[in-house]
Write a structure and sequence with these properties.
The protein is an alpha+beta fold. Among the domains are: 18-143, no CATH class; 416-421 and 444-672 and 703-722, Jelly Rolls, CATH 2.60.120.200; 983-1086, no CATH class. The protein is built from 40 helices and 27 strands. The strands form seven sheets. The chain has a nine-stranded antiparallel beta sheet, with no helix packed on it. Strands 4, 7, 8, 10, 15, 16, 17 and 22 form an eight-stranded antiparallel beta sheet that branches. A two-stranded antiparallel sheet has the order 1-2. A hairpin with a 4-residue loop joins β7 (484-486) and β8. α31 runs parallel beside α35 (985-1001) and α34 packs across α35. The protein is globular. The two termini are 58 Å apart. Residues 1-16 have low confidence and may be disordered. InterPro entries: ConA-like_dom_sf, Cyt_c-like_dom_sf, Cyt_c_Planctomycete-type, DUF1549, DUF1553. Keywords: Signal. Residues 169-373 form the DUF1549 domain. Residues 57-118 form the Cytochrome C Planctomycete-type domain.
């Protein structure tokens, strides 16, 4: 409870005016009283009061229950009205400031009772105090936060100057200008307007020829024709993609310390294509959030889900995978909140949001939607992080389609053979009964390895099947007297945690189309131990590629066969726990057909009851052409990479190069010839199980027709593997078969789960309909629902920002209580409703903005207007701000005709200072390998993006580093930026090539300089500019003529060939002129 300031009726001991009301008298300090007389009638909660409460009060008296002081919430009217102090005063009594504790607290000068407290380092101005007092006096009316109310399309406002209006946008802008008696700026001249439109819609400048053509076109539709042409340009999609890639935190590397490469560019190219084909925005968003959940998703829909995988991921050894996996999920939640909601949901990760109505539970309910991706926290060095899909080339696609058709045919023929082959089976069975030695395979058939683990010879164990391939005792041998113990048969090898058994390089290397079987006897002693028992894989740092028998913490056995675990894999798990402290035979057979039903696990000779967790093995379980990796992935018992499994014994390992049938596996347990026993059992006494086992044996081993079809299928899977081995994989989203349970993580810690939560949305925005699925697809539908208050507002605000440099809500990444209020709320809602009504037509919205008179205004404005509205929040003039980092480089290349027009493809490696990657790299991509030819001149969005070392030129011009989601770049102005344009080889080369062109195109110096100036700025130079540039040229030409070494240096910058037909000193001087113009505001700033 509050300590009451005073009882009702006692006046504050302050000199000043007195506020009298039905709620008693309140003495006002002089400064507050003076401000009170200037306040508008009435006080508006949203625009006047809410910003004060949010900024100064909500941290202690807001939504965060864990940090609320005195149990008071000032963000909810009912709580604020009902809360009593010790004295009996209400925190807020509407219409009665004298009975309102809030009023007395904010007016007090006593540090023991004043609010905000001195310890908060916050304070209220006299005007803010006056606003709060007057608000209480007027009834303390609350309103819902503007951004959390449903979008309603407003009526078009009345305006006086109808002739200025070109579309509905202008009515909202002009209405507010006319209220303030302000006139809009005149329309920009045609050249400026054309350049502005080109830069805003394609990110590139118009060519001199395009400028000339536009100036010559005097038709009323001339401007609209240009806009339609630009919206249809393939460069439109490239330009639109840049800001989206910032939000998606797109990069070509994983981040963190190792920062290895990933294949991300297909997602970037999909974004470009989507904008170019004007994909409806609801689809654009749905595909990225949940494309994998759509019916029969296409490759594009799957690639789009890469949006949720673009976050940083760690390859580093020694990390805790679950800690990092949790970080990936929280990144998705934060990105979702910032990109689609415009809300800082990340503030609720550790506790209730201090300012917005997002609880700790709300955060982890959203988290639940993104927590079911089938991924691992530590991603591999080899292979794309799981889950992923393969993107074959068109040629490979044709071959794969042919293979799959043949596979289906062979599979069908094999099934028909088994179904109709009973007569042949009966004939074989009769022959086997008469002469079993001729009808059955010998016990040693296809036996690759048999290791008894009796006393080793030195460190070696004999292979009874093939003496050339031995096993070796590895690790600490100091306890060798302990390591050998009584086994199931003879001696066994004891694994005590510091030792292991390894097998020779390339021994028992099986590809996914090769059948094989494993049988081993184990005696486990410690129920708390989990880990690999026997495997042929590389462990977590290589995606567990290969196969692995693993004991889980709960005692169950997991068998995996993986390309990159957990998604590109077969994974089965036993229902029952593995026995302890008794010799137990475990084995599996694999038929080489890459499906879970062909991977059979046996315990003590009987098929184990298993749950299939994954059945999606589509690529190699080995490595490359040589089928090895930089770390030798050999067969091993007791150790997986640096992880040791301890306190168990092993004995009698057998490895076969064919899939053993169930009756053969039973014999390995009983140590009897169960097959012969079944054959020798009289037909009348044979059990159905024996008969079925014999039939399985026949069709697996003895039937030539079945063998033919099996061989065909394995051959085709091998061909498929070879093709896919050369194709690219990309990360996507794919749900686990069995969903993860999500929990509220106390303080956001991965290892501190609290109460369980399920997928849900915050009630404060718009409650998700009950009939929506509780998955990412349902979340996308919730986002797009017509009652959702945030999504369309956030989206159109971001579109607006692309053209004016700021949004109608300037805090474009925060629509919450701490964000700024919209400058034109009715316009924002009108655009939001219009966008939805257009069926999410992105290009139509862009066209509406650029066709408006608001957009077409000159950016100069009057001096008085600049002083009264320096940030142009009234939009009484056109936009003017520096181009983005990408635009600056692209414009230099385009102006010099160097820009490569190719759309999409792998990332480019243009010029970069030497040694940057080397200085920061650990083991991945240590050296930056600069490309040559037209790859040097590709658009900047194609430049390779290494998170630990982004392109330095673009960082200097405020490009996002893309470690996290960024929806609004910072804007700086530094000396380094000028130095980059003057000295970066890319800009110097562009200046040199432009200089070559100006001497080819122009006959006189005036024509030559004018050509370069126009190419860079879209207009000819003024007389004064021409005079200055000619003087610069003459000075530089004179110096270069006397200094051939300097000529050679500047003409040697860049790989584009020098024109031998031109005067080198002239070209060098022209290079300086062009470089100087590149540093003009006219080049760098969009007017």
């Amino acid at each position: 409870m509050f300590k009451s300031l005073f009882t009702y009726g006692l006046l504050l001991p302050l000199a000043g005016a007195m506020l009298a009301s039905c709620g008693g008298k309140v003495d006002l300090p002089d400064d507050v009283a003076a401000e009170m007389s200037t306040l508008a009638q009435p006080i508006d909660y949203t625009y006047d009061v809410k910003p004060i409460l949010s900024d100064r009060c909500f941290a202690c008296h807001g939504p965060d229950a864990n940090h609320q002081k005195a149990g008071l919430r000032l963000d909810i009217a009912e709580v604020a009205y009902e809360k009593e102090t010790d004295s009996g005063l209400k925190a807020i009594m509407p219409g009665k400031p004298g009975k309102s504790e809030l009023v007395h607290r904010i007016l007090s000068a006593d540090p023991e009772v004043m609010m905000p407290t001195p310890e908060s380092h916050l304070s209220l101005t006299a005007r803010e105090k006056a606003i709060l007092v007057k608000w209480v006096d007027e009834g303390a009316a609350y309103k819902p936060h503007w951004a959390f109310t449903k979008v309603e399309k407003p009526e078009l406002p009345e305006v006086k100057n109808e002739s200025w209006v070109k579309n509905d946008i202008d009515r909202f802008i002009l209405n507010k200008l006319e209220e303030k008696n302000i006139s809009p700026a005149p329309e920009a001249d045609k050249t400026t307007l054309l350049r502005r439109a080109y830069l805003d819609l394609t990110g590139l400048p118009p060519t001199p020829e395009e400028v000339t053509a536009f100036l010559a076109d005097q038709s009323p539709k001339a401007y609209e024709k240009v806009i339609d042409k630009l919206l249809a340009s393939p460069h439109y999609g490239e330009h639109m993609a840049v800001s989206w890639l910032d939000a998606a935190r797109y990069a070509d590397t994983h981040g963190y310390q190792d920062d290895g490469m990933r294949t991300a560019w297909p997602f970037r190219d999909w974004v470009i294509r989507s904008f170019n084909r004007n994909q409806p925005y609801d689809q654009f968003v749905t595909w990225q959030l949940a494309g994998d959940m759509l019916p029969n998703p296409t490759r594009d829909q799957m690639v789009a889900t890469g949006f949720n995988r673009m976050h940083q991921q760690s390859q580093e050894g020694g990390i805790i995978p679950e800690e990092y996996r949790t970080a990936y999920v929280t990144d998705r939640v934060d990105t979702f909140g910032k990109t689609f909601l415009g809300i800082t949901v990340e503030c609720a990760r550790c506790h209730d949001h201090k300012y917005d109505p997002i609880s700790h539970k709300d955060y982890y309910s959203l988290y639940s939607y993104f927590n079911n991706n089938n991924e691992n926290g530590q991603i591999p060095y080899n292979g794309e992080a799981s889950p992923s899909i393969t993107l074959p080339t068109p040629e490979a696609e044709v071959r794969l389609k042919f293979i799959h058709t043949r596979l289906d045919k062979a599979s069908s023929e094999e099934q028909q053979r088994v179904a109709g082959g009973d007569p042949d089976f009966r004939r074989w069975l009769a022959a086997a009964e008469a002469h079993p030695e001729k009808a059955l395979l010998p016990d040693s058939q296809d036996l690759l390895g048999h290791f008894t683990f009796d006393e080793p010879k030195g460190k070696e164990f004999r292979n009874l099947a093939d003496p050339k391939h031995k096993a070796t005792s590895e690790g600490d041998d100091s306890l060798s007297n302990v390591a050998s113990r009584p086994g199931k048969i003879g001696k066994a090898r004891y694994m005590y945690g510091e030792n292991a058994v390894g097998f020779g390089d390339k021994f028992a290397f099986f590809e996914r189309n090769q059948p094989f079987s494993i049988s081993i006897w184990l005696n486990l002693h410690d129920p708390a131990v989990s880990g690999s028992l026997i495997h042929k894989s590389n462990g977590v740092m290589n995606g567990y590629r290969g196969w692995n028998i693993f004991r889980e913490k709960d005692g169950r056995i997991k068998l995996t066969m993986s390309h990159v675990w957990p998604e590109n894999a077969i994974e089965i798990q036993t229902v029952e726990k593995f026995p302890m402290n008794k010799w137990t035979q475990i084995g599996f057979s694999y038929d080489g057909l890459s499906k879970a039903d062909g991977l059979k696990l046996y315990i003590n000779g009987l098929p184990a009851k298993v749950v299939v967790h994954n059945d999606n093995l589509t690529e190699s379980i080995l490595y490359g052409k040589n089928k090895t990796n930089w770390y030798v992935d050999k067969l091993n018992i007791g150790r997986l990479s640096d992880q040791r499994t301890k306190n168990f014994e092993v004995d009698e390992l057998k490895i076969y190069t064919r899939p053993l049938t169930s009756i053969e596996m039973l014999g390995l347990y009983t140590l009897k010839n169960e097959l012969a026993a079944a054959i020798n059992t009289p037909a009348a006494s044979r059990t159905p199980a024996q008969l079925n086992a014999l039939k399985e044996y026949y069709f697996s081993n003895m039937d030539p027709e079945s063998a033919k079809y099996l061989a065909e299928r394995r051959k085709l899977i091998g061909e498929e593997t070879e093709i896919l081995d050369k194709e690219i994989d990309v990360m996507v989203m794919k749900e686990r078969k069995f969903p993860r349970q999500s929990f509220i993580l106390n303080r956001g810690a991965y290892d501190a789960p609290g109460k369980p939560v399920n997928p849900d949305t915050p009630d404060s925005f718009f409650k998700i309909p009950k009939n929506y699925p509780k998955n990412r697809l349902g979340l996308a539908r919730w986002l797009l629902h017509e009652d959702h208050p945030l999504f369309t507002r956030v989206t159109v605000n971001r579109f607006w920002m692309m053209y004016f440099g700021k949004g109608l809500v300037v805090s474009s990444d925060d629509f919450g209580n701490q964000g700024e209020l919209p400058t034109h709320p009715q316009l924002l809602d009108y655009l939001s409703a219009t966008f939805r009504q257009s069926k999410w037509n992105v290009k139509a919205m862009q066209k509406m903005i650029v066709m408006s008179a608001t957009y077409r205004q000159a950016s100069s404005g009057t001096q008085e207007m600049r002083e009264s509205d320096p940030d142009n929040r009234l939009y009484a003039r056109g936009p003017s701000y520096r181009m983005s980092a990408e635009q600056i480089r692209d414009n230099a290349l385009a102006s010099s005709s160097l820009l490569t027009q190719r759309i999409g493809g792998k990332s480019a490696y243009p010029y970069q200072p030497n040694g940057l990657w080397e200085a920061l790299a650990t083991r991945n991509e240590v050296v930056y390998k600069q490309q040559h030819g037209d790859s040097l001149y590709r658009r900047s969005l194609y430049t390779v993006w290494k998170r630990s070392s982004p392109p330095p030129m673009m960082l200097n011009f405020d490009a996002a580093e893309r470690h996290f989601c960024i929806t609004k770049r910072q804007k700086t102005s530094t000396p380094l930026q000028a130095l980059v344009v003057m000295n970066d080889p890319q800009f110097v080369e562009a200046s040199r090539v432009l200089a070559q062109q100006m001497f080819r195109k122009g006959k006189t110096l005036d024509e030559q300089i004018s050509y370069a100036f126009t190419a860079l700025t879209s207009r000819p130079p003024s007389n004064r500019e021409m005079s200055i540039l000619k003087e610069l040229y003459e000075e530089e030409y004179s110096d270069f003529s006397r200094n051939p070494k300097r000529v050679k240096e500047i003409l040697g910058v860049g790989e584009y060939p020098a024109d031998k037909m031109l005067n080198p000193a002239q070209v060098a001087a022209g290079t300086i002129v062009a470089s100087t113009v590149m540093n003009f505001d006219e080049f760098l700033i969009k007017r």
